[in-house]
Design brief:
about 5% strand; 2 domains; five-stranded parallel sheet; rod-shaped; about 55% helix; Rossmann fold; 5 strands; 14 helices; alpha/beta; about 375 residues; Hypothetical protein af1432
Amino acid sequence: MNTPASNRTVTRSPVDPVRAIEVAGAAMVEDSPRRILVVDDETTIRLALSRFLRTRGFEVEAAESGHAALEVLERQRFSLMLCDLRMPGMTGLEVVPQALQRDGDLGIIMLTAVNDAGSATEALSKGAFDYLTKPVELPDLQAAVERAMQRRTRSMEQRAVDRLIREEVALRTVQLEREKVALRDLTVSIAETLINAMEAKDLYLRGHSQRVAELGAAIAAELGEADAVVELVHTAGRLHDVGKIGIRESVLNKNGPLSADEFAHVKDHVKIGLEILQPLGHLGDALLFIRDHHEHWNGGGYPYGRAGADITIGGRVLTAADAFDALTSKRAYRDPMTAAATLDYMHSQAGKLVEPRVYEALRRVIERGELAGIPRL
């Protein structure tokens, strides 16, 4: 079967790591990755480090304190920051997390005295890449800078890949949900076609499934059930009688009371319906609601004799909606009951046929009279 172009799902190819790296590389070019911020309260050290790094092709800015460094980071982006650990006012340990808040891609190398190794390790735990002990040997500085540059590049590439993966997962989740909804709607539509064909043969059943669906959904909403449950009740209501396809027309249309054998045959429609719908597992709990729509609160229903809370909430709701519509609809063997008389009768059955709180929700829905096609008081 050809699918119309407007209904086809566009499937994207898997995430391309090379493309992700290219994205990260482009971002780093925009961020001027050869820029370094040197932070030290000693002027001679700032000047010496800045001079050396410039000879190695870096663009260098300098700050004499932690506060000054943060002000610079507010205005400019750098690939690396060399930061002294001990400074007056704001220590390097205090600078690190605040600097990373301003630029999560910033690589940080700490400068520390020999006896401050413990503090330097703490700085690493806060997000610094590395640390060097003073006095700094220039070859060691160059090696540390190159290591930090490489680590920053890898980190940005990984974040780019992770971001694209998250986007892809989100896109596929939306697509799969749309496909699931489309499949459910298609299968429900097919089943409804069967039900409509069946109801077309019986003047007294026409529109029954749709009315039960609408009334059941309204009751579920009145009970405060989640939107997803309300929708499942509606779906189950539309399909709850599909099993009657397997019931003999002579029994369905009998003008008079059913014999015990005929009634047993009619009760088979629940299991027949489940057999028809069982392959459609994507209908989820709607199948369980259909299974339970003739169970009674006191355990006197069929086909399994479930009782009380063992009956699904959808089954309890559909029992009430199905009974109300059946009683208020004309049958070959009787005239319809009024909405008021039906509510009175069902009130007497609260705690037996239906759960009392479900009956109360049904009563409030009928009293409001807002549903098209449903009898009003």
